[in-house]
Automatic annotation (TrEMBL):
The keyword Acyltransferase does not apply. Catalyzes the dehydration of the S-form of NAD(P)HX at the expense of ADP, which is converted to AMP. Together with NAD(P)HX epimerase, which catalyzes the epimerization of the S- and R-forms, the enzyme allows the repair of both epimers of NAD(P)HX, a damaged form of NAD(P)H that is a result of enzymatic or heat-dependent hydration. This is Bifunctional NAD(P)H-hydrate repair enzyme. Residues 8-226 form the YjeF N-terminal domain. AMP binds at K431, G432, A433, D434, T435, G460. Its cofactor is Mg(2+); K(+). HAMAP family: NADHX_dehydratase, NADHX_epimerase.
Amino acid sequence: MLLSAAQMQRVDATAVEQGINSFELMCSAGQAVADTAVELLQNRSGTFLVLAGPGNNGGDGAIAAQELAGRGYQVVVVRFLVEAEAGMASGNEAELRDADRAFAQWRGVTFAYTLQQEQVDQQLREMIDQSDVIIDALFGAGLKRPLQGLVAQLVEQVNMACAKVLAVDVPSGLNGNTHGVDGVCIKADTTVTFFLHKPAHFLYPGRELCGRKTLAQIGLSKAQLNPDWPLCVLNEPDFFLPALPVLGQEGHKFDRGHVLVRSGPLQSTGASRLSAQTALECGAGLVTLASSNEALSVNAAHLTAVMLKPCDNISQWQLILQDQRINTVIVGPGNGVDAATRGCSLAALQADKHCVLDADALSCWTNTSDREQLFEALLAARYTAILTPHTGEFERLFGELSDGNDQVQPRSRLHLACAAARLVKAVVVFKGADTVIAAPDGRSAINANAPPWLATAGAGDVLAGVIASLSAQGMSAFEAACAGVWMHGQAAMELGYPMSAEHLATRLPQVVHALSPVNKKGFGETELVKR
Ligand SMILES: NC(=O)C1=CN([C@@H]2O[C@H](COP(=O)(O)OP(=O)(O)OC[C@H]3O[C@@H](n4cnc5c(N)ncnc54)[C@H](O)[C@@H]3O)[C@@H](O)[C@H]2O)[C@@H](O)CC1
Ligand SMILES: Nc1ncnc2c1ncn2[C@@H]1O[C@H](COP(=O)(O)OP(=O)(O)O)[C@@H](O)[C@H]1O
Ligand SMILES: [K+]
């Protein structure tokens, strides 16, 4: 599970309400920072510089300093305080007291600066240049505004320094609520976080700014979580494995679903074939490609196990949709940005099928009344549809969205995907380097296993295919989308760079195979007991 900075602060407060000593939490956090800092030195001797901010993030830094000094390392501490404490204080005196207690335990020298000071001076510059590991304990969950003045300059100096940088909780400047950076931010080699990661650690730019991520347990537990918080997870197999398709011993191919894919016209049939082929190879029982008569022979020349059906107009499409055995439909890949794609998308949504709308089925709603028609059909659909937009498609479809939480500005891809999912009651797979999968009930997942070479022509068509395949085999829309996105990234990782969408489509079945519980079950074996 992932928690925003605000939720983490709530966890902290709940812990205190439940009788957990907040200073002990800080001591555990500081010790974890020290452990990670030592690892960064890689068994060499060296100097640590702790840059400590005015809040509890700085307190963690002070505890780490004392711990490191106790282990015999040379440590320099610089504390940045608010000049007029009363005017600038966070208002939470208990938090300030913990940080002050931490500094009271620090036995070494503290160089004190005020945040109002205008420039990084020579002394500070030298301390940065002479250190081997810089511990960034400036700001964590309590960051309220962009870094300015002295700290902004300081961050720029640190980012240019040769020292390794260890960020405490988050790299200072990364906002744990908006998940973004407004202005400058520390670029860390390693980030140590406590209890649970934040979405900002896995969304860009945070994912890159954090460097390696480590998680330390400091005495918090599920007992401090609010069960009403919508689930946000890192998309990993543990999350979707229990939902993967299970095959009955006497199962029929129709038990594993029948996927219908709408082909593009003669000059653009490849995309839908990639989707269809992937859907079949990832386990769907049957796949049919509905193709115009003029494209039929081109499609036929490339397909064997995927079936073909002629379909020249919306009436024929609706007739095909009447087949009750077809349980899942893909519309969009290579289909064309036109009225026919709009009509076929609406008909699919109205036909009580699981629907994956991708590519042109997301781009063809060019005016407001078109979009309203789509949104109405999505809201009325019997099954939760799955939309798979990349950034351009998302912006065309959803434009300016409000997620009802206007205090969090600017909104990240996570906020936008969740808002879109809620608006149209569909699962939204917001594709990118940090693909977000959002469900209408507020659940969300951030995917982090996809390598950059996955961005290749046709990769999206393959993704639509695997998601539809899993959906056809009985997985819920959200779980099918999460599993499909992860498997897609994993297949690309296994292939390595360079890679084409065709390679991806042929590799995906191996990923499904490796994860599927059915391959561990030993079907077809007859146990013969001899006495
Ligand atoms: N369970 C938890 O949540 C725990 C949290 N701990 C630490 O506590 C941190 C959160 O502490 P706080 O809530 O005190 O917050 P921070 O220490 O992140 O910062 C708050 C202080 O910074 C000031 N400030 C915020 N943005 C500023 C800006 N742009 N320029 C100048 N000043 C700014 C605020 O006025 C306030 O004084 C976490 O990040 C973590 O490191 C740990 O001590 C262990 C337990
Ligand atoms: N930098 C990146 N790192 C990892 N995955 C990426 C990156 N950029 C794009 N992707 C993924 O590549 C796929 C591209 O899909 P899409 O944009 O629909 O391409 P196409 O339309 O060519 O099929 C998506 O799954 C997306 O999440
Ligand atoms: K920090």
